[in-house]
Design a protein that fits this description.
about 190 residues, alpha/beta, seven-stranded mixed beta sheet, 12 strands, about 35% helix
Length: about 190
Amino acid sequence: MSDRLTGFRVAILATDLFEETELTEPRKALDEAGATTVVIAPHPGEIKAAHHGKVTSHTVKVDQLMTEADPEKFEAVLLPGGAKNAEALRLDQLAQEFVRHMDQMHRPIAVICHGGWLLISAHLVKGRHLTSYKAIQTDYVNAGAFWYDKEVVRDGNLVSSRQPSDIPRFNQEMLNLCIDYHLRSHAAA
């Protein structure tokens, strides 16, 4: 276990039918680096996982409700995919406001697969370099993004990946982005 991200708080915005490995694997990487991860959802209790769109028996405990979430209390945000999860979150005004605030503060935003739908709905992708699940490539392009078919794309405070098979590279770049931000914010303090 590392302590590179000790004291670093990461919001994980998700709801039912999130793609299981796209939440659990990046969360594990962040936790192992010393970060504190907080699952924020629109409803209390637990959120249900999916594996390629099919409901699994796995659930994740909700730590905080979207209505209570204050982006000022977080240094980064993780947006896992899963089409149903992403479709629900992209319509959530509070989720949109949360990611807008994180972007305005230049805080790390890590997004994988369909998770980028929230960024599109929040009007945060125009002129940005990103990747996603190929099925939503046109959504990115229509919103003014530069879309790439690569394992991982980093653009300023954004890091994005396409799918579960990209998670090892995604985790590496997400951690690099968070560590860079953490070191800069401590140096400025």
